[in-house]
Design brief:
This protein is globular. It is α+β, with helices and mostly antiparallel strands. Helices cover 19% and strands 33% of the residues. Bound molecules: beta-D-mannopyranose (BMA). The site of beta-D-mannopyranose has 11 residues, from loops.
């Protein structure tokens, strides 16, 4: 969405705010805040109950099966001789727009900005604007039924059928982690513009970095309404440039270059400053404001003796990408506010992430989302919005709509410092092999796919905004339609064998991806979140309600089976929930530490998935509401910029400790290693100092398996000159269930310190693994998933308090039991 919120043009009137909605089925009227969605407005006016509660979901299907009308009245002063345009940033999805009873336009895509000419319909004085939403579910079916041949969708993901015919967030129809509400609404701004000589539509930017200067090529895409001269000005701080052009009516583009000497570069988190510049662009009467960052990003795909590399180079420095996949912030769009999103993105950075992939089954996020990413130092891998289904792109009208979407979005997002990559889709190459129709007639569906994929590539490359295009995620490479779920020699990989094929965690060590952009393991959210959607009688892993809040067929069984594979079976539901979170943390730790130890063969890991859209069992590290699961705490450790990790030598069984350094300079690391027995003996401290280079992981030390002895594990910690690069880690040569864990006799003391405020001090008599002090809390602790060793104290402090939608909770210690 273009940031009209900051538009300063005097003839620009925002029409967001209080509207009134009417249900066309029963005539009920209720207030409708814009931006907003129908479900949230119905909920706010007490006409429906909480969609996330127990099994409420399907009882709300009448909402997407119906038509809705939203209206508002507004006063305006009609400017003589000016043309009037109504700009709607994001309408979900099919809707007829009427001004004073006159139809002024029809919206067909949530991802396209519409600029309707309302010159004839606009009145001086009072006006009435109406958006009439049609039923997207009905239109999806009609489009499917009238299509030349079958275009299948993933039925086990999508409870609501045929949404692949709609340009609407695909997971609105349900996903293997999402509720299927199919929201309807106006998500961006609604603006009335009265324009004399020109109307500014899009602005794109590209940067050219030379010695000591950055040139920003700014292109303004305008509709010229009267022949004459148009002035364009761009300024940031003390630097400005302007030009005046004689233009004829019609679509025109104006370009101008602003040069910034002695640039302060923008860096991803952990690699330098997130320097941002305020930039203003004026075109005729229109003014737009941007916050830009000066950075260069390249996708490195050099051939090597393995295949081809897949790495990002930012400002001439190769950077290992540590991150996760982003899905929409909430299944109810009105709840995805900047405050909520800021909290989730802050959590990502706090876990040492520097990249998020905006997954193709979600949405292009609003400008403020990318501004937050730029401010926080998160690079964005941006998918185009297609996922897992097949798409009707042999229909030229449909493809035309996609082209319009792609052009607008590529231009809109070009000014954001965080942008790193445009990717064609999520898993569409693999999807060709998932359906009987496309298995039988692969030629047809591949040709259809390639029409769309090529259109997207063409747009990214024609716009030429210096962000690379990658055909699909996963992909081995351009025009390679092979299996990138298993090929680890080139391209990006989705590695799902552990979760979806029930292989053990050690199986992560059988592949060495160049870049793993998806892999994940599920867990339950904390008891506190479970309590928010259940009655006490539902709190059992086999209950119907727990099944409804699990969208991946067999998911709860997989969780339970994994628990019994690695742990002694728990006595209570609470313990099972806790163990599910440990399993997930162990899975991701195993994968990510192994792949990081393969640097530079592997240059990035983005796990599935950062966040949740509603309270559900899922692969997320942040539960619904943003609380940190154990895995997110673990992520802060396995993503620490300097990492020591123990890996088994597949041939000898010895334990090799690798040192990994993702910072830009070599670091001097001092490490201490201990053998710890379940009964609490701590043996032979072994220390080591070494310099760790930045370009590759190195072997630091080897421990023969024979040295371990029964019931012993390895614990180690390291320090660096910079405190925030220090860390701790451990390695169990056997599964946790093969140890007789004893009561650790943990003692808790509450202290206060000047610097950190309240401190929780923990000590133990026997080792305690995966200790958690306050699972499901709104407090973000300095740690909440740690190993306790006799003789060591663990001090916890609260780093941040989060806004909560849940009631209070009292901390409760949890640890691995024997
Ligand atoms: C990936 C994603 C999603 C899905 C996840 C878990 O492949 O792209 O489609 O939610 O797997 O199954």
């Amino acid at each position: 969405m273009m940031d009209f919120t900051k538009e300063q043009n005097n003839d620009c009137q925002r029409l967001s705010g209080e509207w009134t909605a009417r249900c066309l089925k029963n005539g009920a009227e209720f207030p409708f805040p814009v931006p907003g969605d129908v479900h949230s407005a119905l909920l706010a006016s007490d006409q429906i109950s909480d969609p996330y509660w127990r099994e409420t979901e399907t009882s709300l299907d009448w909402i997407h099966e119906n038509e809705w009308q939203i209206k508002r009245r507004f006063e305006t002063q009609r400017k003589k001789g000016k043309r009037a345009y109504l700009t709607l940033e994001s309408v979900d999805c099919f809707a007829i727009v009427r001004l004073n009873g006159i139809e002024v336009g029809m919206c067909q895509s949530q991802f396209v900005r519409y600029d309707f000419d309302v010159t004839e319909a606009l009145l001086d004085g009072e006006n009435e604007l109406e958006v009439h939403f049609l039923s997207n579910s009905k239109i999806a079916k009609e489009k499917h039924d009238s299509f030349e041949f079958e275009v299948p969708y993933l039925a086990f993901n999508n409870r609501l059928p045929h949404y692949n015919f709609l340009r609407k967030t695909q997971c609105h129809a349900g996903w293997d982690w999402n509720i299927a509400l199919s929201p309807v609404g106006l998500y961006g701004d609604v603006i009335l513009r009265q324009c004399q000589a020109s109307r500014l539509d899009d602005i794109s930017m590209r940067q050219r970095h030379e010695d000591g200067v950055v040139h920003i090529d700014i292109t303004a895409f305008c509709e010229i309404l009267e022949p004459g001269s148009v002035r364009i000005v761009a300024r940031t701080g003390e630097h400005a440039v302007s030009d005046e052009r004689q233009l004829w009516p019609g679509e025109q583009r104006l370009t101008l270059t602003l040069t910034i000497p002695n640039p302060r570069l923008w860096w991803p988190a952990g690699h330098g400053e997130q320097a941002l510049y305020d930039l203003t662009v004026e075109v005729g009467e229109d003014v737009r404001h941007f916050r830009i960052g000066l950075k260069k990003v390249e996708l490195i795909r050099d051939r090597d003796d393995i295949g081809r590399r897949f790495a990002f180079r930012v400002n001439d420095r190769e950077i290992f990408m540590r991150g996760a996949n982003w899905i929409p912030a909430d299944a109810l769009p009105s709840r995805a506010t900047p405050d909520v999103v800021r909290d989730r993105l802050t959590s990502a950075v706090e876990a040492n992430m520097n990249m998020l992939r905006i997954w193709g089954g979600g949405q292009y996020e609003p400008d403020w989302f990318y501004e937050l990413c730029s401010e926080l130092g998160l690079l964005v891998w941006q998918d185009f919005m297609f996922a897992c289904n097949l798409y009707p792109s042999s229909d030229r009208q449909w493809l035309g709509l996609v082209r319009q979407e792609a052009r607008q979005q590529v231009r809109r997002l070009s000014s954001h410092a965080c942008m790193a990559l445009w990717c064609g889709d999520n898993e569409l190459v693999g999807a060709l092999g998932w359906y009987p129709e496309s298995k039988q007639n692969r030629d047809r569906y591949l040709a259809m796919y390639e029409r769309m994929n090529f259109a997207l590539q063409e747009i990214v490359e024609e716009e030429n905004l210096d962000i690379a295009f990658w055909p699909s995620s996963p992909s081995i490479g351009p025009l390679n339609f092979g299996d990138s779920w298993h090929d680890d020699t080139s391209g990006d990989m989705h590695f799902w064998d552990v979760w979806h094929s029930a292989k053990d965690f050690e199986h992560y060590r059988t592949v060495r991806p160049r870049f793993c952009s998806e892999f994940g393991f599920q867990s339950f959210p904390s008891m506190r979140v479970i309590e928010s959607f259940t009655e006490p009688r539902d709190r059992n892993v086999s209950s119907r309600v727990m099944d409804v809040h699990q969208r991946n067929d067999g998911g709860n069984s997989r969780i339970v089976e994994t628990i019994s594979r690695y742990f002694r079976f728990p006595d209570s539901f609470e313990d099972l929930v806790y163990l599910s979170q440990i399993s997930q943390a162990m899975a991701m730790k195993t994968a990510i530490e192994f792949w990081r130890s393969n640097k530079p063969r592997c240059m990035g890991t983005l796990y599935w998935q950062l966040n949740d859209t509603w309270p559900v069992a899922s692969w997320s590290g942040l539960e619904y509401g943003g609380g940190w699961k154990l895995m997110h705490y673990m992520a802060r450790q396995f993503y620490s910029p300097v990492l020591l990790t123990a890996q088994p030598d597949m041939k000898t069984g010895d334990v090799i400790v690798y040192a990994v350094n993702d910072t830009e300079n070599p670091v001097l690391v001092s490490a201490e290693f201990r053998y710890v027995s379940v009964s609490g003996e701590v043996r032979t401290p072994f220390s080591l100092s070494l310099e760790v280079p930045t370009d590759r992981a190195i072997e630091a030390v080897r421990f023969p398996l024979a040295d371990f002895g029964e019931s012993v594990f390895l614990a180690f910690n390291w320090t660096c000159a910079r405190q925030d690069f220090s860390g701790e880690n451990f390695f169990l040569p056997k599964a946790p269930r093969d140890y007789d864990w004893q009561d650790p006799e943990i003692e808790v003391e509450h202290l206060r310190s000047e610097e950190d405020g309240e401190i929780v001090r923990l000590t133990c008599k026997k080792p305690a693994l995966y200790t958690s002090y306050d699972l499901g809390s709104d407090d973000i602790y300095s740690d909440n998933c740690f190993t306790m060793i006799p003789g060591q104290t663990k001090d916890l402090c609260i780093r941040r308090k989060r806004l909560s939608h849940l009631g209070p909770q009292t901390p409760e210690l949890q640890y691995l039991k024997g």
